[in-house]
Structure formats: C-alpha cells, structure tokens
Design brief:
The protein has nine helices and twelve strands. By secondary structure, the protein is an alpha/beta fold. The longest helix has 32 residues.
Length: 289
C-alpha cells in the first residue's frame, strides 16, 4: 500500500523540522505522495521537490491558507498549482494582513489600556501568531496586570483566559480580526489552484475560533471549495464517516495527512491515527482510491 501524507509543516511556518530534515523523514517513511502545507507560504515547496527529485516520491504543491469565514477563522488546504504564481498572491495576502495586524494591535491595546491594564510600548504584531495571542502573552507577563486580575477575577489569568474575559466577541476589548476572507482567496486563485480542501473540518483551529458545523461545511462547498480533508487525527470516527458520505454524494476531492509539526506526541508522517495510515486520497489531477 502506498504511504500518503498531504498535510505537514516545516520551519517555514510553525513546524520544527527543516525541509532537508523532512525530506529525509519522507524517504525513511517511504512515502509515495506528499504535500508540504505550510501556513500561508509556499517558500519551502520548491526546495522539498529538489531534495526529493532523485526519489520516487510524488510531491504535490500545497499550502494551508488562513481565511475568515464570517466572524470565524478556518484553514483551507490548496493543492496543485504554479508555485511562483501562488507565492505572489500570498505575498499580497500577507502584506495586507500585516497592515491589518498593526491596526488591530493599536485598537486592542487602546481598549486594554482603557480597562486599566498595561501594554508594552514596543509591542509589534507577529507574522506567525494572531494579534490576540501576542497581546495576551504581553499582558500576562506583567505583575501589575496579574494583580488586577486577582482583584477582578479572583485568579491569575492565562492567555486563553484573556480571550474569554476580554477579547471574545462582545467583550470589552474585542476588535475585528485581521485576515482575508474565503471569497478573497477563491477570487485571487480561481483557475490557478486545482483543489481547495477544507482542512480538519470539525476541528477548532484556535481558542478564538469555533469548529465548523455541518451546515457551515455545506455552505463553503457552495462557495467554491472543492473538497474535504477526511483523514485527520483530531477528526472523530463518526465525523470521518459523515465526510466520506458527503464526498461520495457530491463527488468531491478529499485528502488526509498527519498534520505533522514534529511536536511532542505528533503522529509520524503518513498517519492519521495510532497505527492508521492514510488509506486514499482524490485530487483533480492526482488520486489513489
């Protein structure tokens, strides 16, 4: 059986393995099909193809896109595209989001200060982290703020607590989240990407997001998303069966992968559960059924 992994990450986003290290692991695992899907960058794809050029591994260009879906944030896996073209669109996307993050940080900082909390003067947004996380870490690090939290909430707050107490929708320091919409990405990449796949459809991608409902998934498919990631470690068995059913009924593309970052307790490449290898996938120009 061919070993497949169409979802893993490198140090170009939030993974902990370099491209060279990943290529060695891919060869060790004897993958047949693979796709590097770093967050909002394709910077490592050509390098991975180069490291594997003398092997039998089929490298499918991939990326995991961050998109706003209403007030929620979701991830979309894009596959099979011209790396240079998509790279330019992502440069445009990332430059836009960078500007938005500066404004989001300014607005949120002003609201926290109005709430009597201290924010570092030199705080800047992180390219790889949400603004809310950057702010929460800074706020939690200051004893002045924690003393206030003890008075107000009866406990020291964690970064996650900051979200629920202050920045969740409707809370006193809530501001619009930075990002581009699903529609923006689809319009920019229309006819340039062979497959758009909803990543881990039922998984909450951060503490500040909500997991998609079945109705949300169906709405995204109507918008132009062409498939679903069926096989993922965090997707429960009954959800996998539902995703399979929808893919069969609508003749959708589908994928699976380890979502490997080389973190503690991560699955190895090619797995989506304990000793469970990704059994198949189906993309427009690549498939193993």
């Amino acid at each position: 059986m061919s070993i497949i992994d169409l979802h893993f990450h490198s140090t170009y986003s939030d993974g902990k393995m370099s491209i060279e290290e990943l290529a060695a692991r891919i060869k060790e695992r004897e993958l047949k099909y693979c796709a590097l899907t770093d967050h909002d960058t394709v910077a490592g794809v050509a390098s991975l193809k180069n490291y594997l050029k003398d092997s039998d591994v089929i490298v499918i260009p991939g990326v995991e896109l961050t998109a706003l879906f209403g007030e929620n944030e979701i991830h979309i896996l894009a596959y099979d595209f011209d790396i240079g073209f998509v790279g330019k669109i992502l440069e445009e996307r990332n430059a836009l989001v960078k500007k938005q993050k500066i404004e989001e940080l300014r607005q949120a900082s002003d609201l926290f200060i109005l709430n009597g909390l201290q924010i570092s003067d030199n705080l800047v947004p992180s390219e790889k982290k949400p603004v809310g996380y950057t702010l929460a870490m800074d706020i939690c690090s200051k004893q002045f703020n924690q003393d206030i939290f003890l008075q107000r909430h009866g406990k020291i707050l964690s970064p996650d607590d900051i979200y629920f107490e202050y920045t969740a929708p409707g809370k006193s320091c809530a501001v619009a989240r930075s990002g581009v919409s699903v529609q923006w990405l689809l319009s920019k990449l229309e006819n340039k990407v062979s497959d758009f796949i909803i990543a881990h459809p039922f998984l909450q991608v951060s503490v500040a997001t909500k997991p998609l409902l079945a109705s949300d998934i169906l709405s995204l498919l109507e918008m132009g998303i062409s498939g679903l990631e069926i096989y993922h470690d965090k997707t429960a068995g009954d959800k996998i069966q539902w995703l399979k059913k929808i893919c069969n009924e609508k003749n959708l593309s589908y994928t699976g992968g380890s979502d490997f970052h080389n973190r503690q307790n991560d699955l190895n490449l090619g797995l989506y559960g304990q000793d469970l290898e990704v059994p198949s996938f189906n993309l427009s120009n690549f498939k193993l059924i």
